[in-house]
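Hi everyone, sorry if this is the wrong subforum. Our group has a chain we'd like a structural model of before ordering constructs, and none of us has done structure prediction before. Sequence below.
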Amino acid sequence: MNVIDCAEFDAYWKRRPADQESQAVLEAVREIIAAVRREGDAGVQRFARRFDKNAPAQTQVRPEQIEGAYQRLRETEPALTEALELAANHIRRFAERQKAQCTDFEYEIAPGLIPGQRVIPVGRAGVYVPAGRFPLISSALMGVIPAVTAGVEEVVLVSPPMEDGLPDWRILGTARLAGAHKVFAVGGAQAIAALAFGTETIPQADVIVGPGNKYVAAAKRLLFGTAGIDFVAGPTDVLIIADGNPDFAAADMLAQAEHDPDARARAVVPDQALADQILRCIEVRLATAPAAKASLDAGGLIIVSPNMEESIRIANVIAPEHLELHVENPDLWLPRLSNYGSLFLGSLAAEVLGDYTAGINHTLPTAGNARFTGGLSVRHFLKFLTTLRCSPDTGWTEAVRGAEQIAGAEGLAAHRESGASRLSGV
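Answer:
Right subforum, don't worry. Here is the predicted structure as tokens:
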């Protein structure tokens, strides 16, 4: 765990290792993509035998198996089921509110010139749910529910097979709760390739979303354009700006660090005394969260920044996946913070609530990508399509003549004549 002064931050940030796929990973994923495109299910099977815990001959999970997993969840883990239902309700309600902002309209921008917008869902969405170090059952809710809420006709969930040839049974039960239409036991880069191209059994998806390991991330990057994606997500990270309660900051840093050794937990504090208190709290808490130590040793960071302006600048440079404001008046900070996946206002707004039950999505941009995008939402499953309706009026005439002028300047004579033909024909 490093502790630095804010004056050291820029130099530290420039020399940090780049968060990107290695050439070896990209080459391995290119091989997988080419094989799945060429061989279909046979290619998926080949790489499942190499990388997964099982390579089931039939990758599609039967409806009765999905229903059985859901009933098992309800009967054997009622408290977990209740928590998942609470989370699903909040995620759905938040997604519905998001969708309500995405409306169709037509607007007469000038007399006779009426542009418009139609918002329609994609036809099929693929949702990847990881099950490597941990079976991320919550990712089934986060991926499937916004797609269903958007009105996607077919939502396909894919997740790696366990020893029994099926995805983790709790992921299966949660897929049923979330409303997935089909489930396939396939993981890794081969799952992303299968969704992008389609195979004999796995249908082609228009959009592929969800987190995954570095091979899944590389496959999404390489296949963008063949299918739409949410974004390329790497190791998770958090930045906590804190001016009190060191134990809250320590708890949230460890919660992020336990994901994997590449996860990054960082904090900004006003003085060395608070930095030292957080370090002591981390040492105490590590006894119950030993998995977090590798991440904290590799990239844990506390930045001492007594100046609010500098703290805001640092946060916007880091552009964290999760930004927590453990400060007395977070609303004072809000207007000038612009780069984050999700923002947690006040020390009671623990990031873990965003991970699971508060309704906001936990699939968020990492590695500084919050500079240009937000997290997974209903909009990733919607297409914003424009329309144009015209009538012979003054605004239409002006627009046609303007188009003639611009087309002529660009040297596109046929474009110019296309507009001119309208004027001569009315």
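For your construct planning: The radius of gyration is 25 Å. The chain has a mean pLDDT of 95.
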